[in-house]
Every structure is written in structure tokens, then in C-alpha cells.
Design goal:
Layout: H1 4-29, E1 32-42, E2 45-54, E3 60-71, E4 76-87, E5 92-100, E6 107-119, E7 133-136, E8 142-144
Parallel strand pairs: 1-7, 6-8
Antiparallel strand pairs: 1-2, 2-5, 3-4, 3-6
Keywords: Signal
Organism: Ponticoccus alexandrii
Protein name: Tat pathway signal sequence domain protein
Length: about 140
């Protein structure tokens, strides 16, 4: 037998907590997540694969990040721009970039220096960098920002 007072209290608690839970979930997901997924040697170049997800409610029409590539001894090898193109809201995308003249085994760290371009209708200027989440699955290569 169900007690009507308990279910009413549970419903009231759920109703009162729902906005707080939704706000916490929204705040957590309102960013871009950038994962260095793999590096692969291709002839005289290093192919760098990223998994990127736009956690915002609006599409990003173009996202270009300035990246600094460091060798395994911590020295700057080069600075470059990675154009991730369009990032639809809440949809993961894989983007690959070929860096000529670089051995993947020599890549030690990748620094996301900032967003050179972050554009789209209704997209805030800092949408690509605010609360940017970075991670790496590529063994031996750290990603920082």
C-alpha cells in the first residue's frame, strides 16, 4: 500500500530540485570538448586526429584554433592553425590534420593557444574557448590549453 504523503513529498522534492539539476547539467555541457584522439605517421608527415564536440545549443559555423606543437624535449616545433570548420550543436565530429615534415614520435605536447576564429549566428565570441575541455588519447602526447 502506498502512502499518499510520501509520494506527494517525493513529487514536491523532484519539482523543486529539477531546475537546479537542469542548470548544473546545462552549465556542464555548454562548452567545446577537444580530444586529441590519435597521431599516425604518414610518409614524411604526422596525421593528427581530433574528436571535437560542440556542447552549446547553437551551431558553430567555423572554429579555428591556434595550436603550438612541442617536441618531446619541450621545445616549440611550430605554431599552426587548425580549421575545424562547422561544429553542429551536440554532435561529435572527427577532424584530421596532416603536419608535413613532422615525425609523430617527436610530438610531445600540443598547446591550444586560443581560438583564432569562432563564428556563427548567435555564437558568443568566447564560445570556442570558455570552459574548453581538453584531453588526449594519444599515448605520450599531452594536450594543454
Amino acid at each position: 500500500m502506498r502512502h499518499p504523503g510520501k509520494s506527494a513529498r517525493a513529487l514536491l522534492a523532484a519539482t523543486l530540485l529539477a531546475p537546479a539539476i537542469a542548470t548544473a547539467q546545462d552549465a556542464q555541457g555548454q562548452n567545446v570538448t577537444l580530444e586529441l584522439n590519435a597521431v599516425e605517421q604518414v610518409d614524411e608527415a604526422c596525421r593528427i586526429s581530433f574528436l571535437i564536440q560542440n556542447g552549446h545549443d547553437t551551431d558553430i559555423a567555423q572554429a579555428v584554433y591556434e595550436a603550438v606543437l612541442f617536441d618531446t624535449e619541450g621545445r616549440v616545433d611550430r605554431m599552426t592553425l587548425f580549421d575545424f570548420g562547422a561544429l553542429p550543436a551536440a554532435r561529435p565530429r572527427v577532424r584530421q590534420f596532416v603536419v608535413p615534415g613532422m615525425a609523430c614520435a617527436a610530438l610531445g605536447r600540443l598547446l591550444i593557444n586560443g581560438a583564432d576564429t569562432c563564428a556563427g549566428e548567435g555564437v558568443a565570441q568566447d564560445a570556442c574557448v570558455k570552459d574548453l575541455t581538453l584531453r588526449s588519447r594519444a599515448e605520450g602526447v599531452e594536450v594543454m590549453g
